[in-house]
Amino acid sequence: MSVPRLRFAPSPTGYLHVGGARTALFNWLYARKYGGQFLLRIEDTDKARSTDESTRAIFEGLEWLGLTWDEDVVYQGANLERHQVDARRLLDSGAAYRCFCTREELDQRRAEAEARKEPFKYDRRCDALPAAEVERRVAAGMPFTIRFRVPDGTTSWDDMVHGTISFPNKDIEDFVILRSDGTPIYNLAVVSDDIAMRITIVMRGDDHISNTPKQIMLYRALGAELPTFAHLPMIHGLDGKKLSKRHGATAVGDYQHMGILPQAMLNFLALLGWSPGNDIEVMTVPQMIELFSADGLLKKAAVFDTAKLEWMNGQHLSLLSSADIEPRVTPAIVRAGLATAGELAAKRDWYLALLDQLKVRSRTIDDIVRQAEPYLKDDITYDPAAEAKQWKDRPATADLLRAAGDALKALPAWEPPLMEEALRALAEARGLAGGKVFQPLRVALTGLSVSPGIFDVLVLLGRERSLARIDAAVRHLAG
RNA sequence: GGCGGUAUCGUCUAGGGGACUAGGACGGAGCCCUCUCAAGGCUCAAACACGGGUUCGAAUCCCGUUACCGCUACCA
Length: 479
Prior knowledge:
Layout: E1 5-8, H1 18-33, E2 37-42, H2 52-65, E3 74-75, H3 80-93, E4 96-99, H4 103-115, H5 131-139, E5 145-148, E6 154-159, E7 163-168, E8 176-178, H6 186-196, E9 201-205, H7 212-221, E10 228-232, E11 235-236, H8 252-257, H9 262-270, H10 285-291, E12 302-303, H11 306-319, H12 322-335, H13 341-346, H14 348-359, H15 365-376, H16 384-390, H17 394-409, H18 416-429, H19 434-446, H20 454-478
The protein binds one RNA strand through helix 4, strand 7, helix 6, strand 12 and helix 11.
């Protein structure tokens, strides 16, 4: 059994789309699971739409996800000569013929057929041209395309995900393989390259199912061995339509910038169109490789639901230690202007303790950054809603906070059990439930009505800062 | 229009003729825990597209219908 060779072959006409990322993921998982090779080919034959920028975006997206490829990147555009040679071989062997019909003529005939409500199929008129006439036209420099002559019969294959699929050849017209300018059409370029790259498994979106019979005919006419085909279902938006920009974020980079972890993205994508069974959902990347099996590949298109992605990210966040996520959080904090990397490094232990507190109540890296502000910045601002809710009776609150500050200040050590004892005693002395003390205090310390446990906040802030914030709140309330 | 593909809770899915009173997860509702918010635990609502077969028995197999998606270019 030969080593499986798979490839991901995006065209660089935009950013790395989540659908493309998932196709890449399944190819990669298959290669990793079965000891195969995963290759990357950039299909840049459409010069008008391809850009270096989007080629870079594809690399970046794949690298961020950790979907590494095994050999040098293949640029389809660099294989133009081989594509032409293959087209020529097909022409010479009689599997293809020259077509002198112009695009205008074709468009017109297509429109006429349309008007008559008939399906349009190229009528092979140029295939019927006498050899002498063909020669005359070529000699006269008439432009021509090369069309593949579709044989009679049926073309079918055993698809890895769909089982047997077959197409009556009569429904397939003699398709163009080489344009009049000498450049190849997609189907030729793909087959030519897949043969050259010795690809054994072609795993791609099921929007290519209709191209497959054409490609199979090309493989045969070229005398090449057929690869195994696996057609993955598409990804749709919430409205059931093929996922596109109007559904919001569709580029993997969008999710990277939203603070999604690559492993969570991969995990989520893997579950769209594949299931390991046994109700398993949250998986690390090694586990995904371990569990991956082509049997679990589904046929049905899946809807991309970001709510579940965020939940998944939260799951992965809790799987990681604060030290693991620190490299991803720090740049975001720096970008938000809350601290410099140097400042954070100087108090690393404290910083990691802070992350431990914040990550449990976060779903994304951005959530962590949002919550970190009161601990990283010197000044806090009181959230109006929190103030209105927890500081209703301002004089009484000022008094309560002053007392709480005094109690805390009197503590022999800055430790949670002592804090709790003192604060609960204060509450009891005033006939209040603990929360009636903790909540106003939380606002004084963080400016917010939501935070980690109050004693954790006190520890994170430290004695001096906590006491100072309480003082400031008392002054604010009195003033 | 032609051809192809697909069809289980709103969403991701388990399910491979009897173990189905159709399971899990997200989201939703509620309860517990609790100083808030999360996390966690528990509970509830929620689906086999429809119609015919085959079979003692169908979510599972077959056929048809419907719906949705894709392809139908000198795009990829």
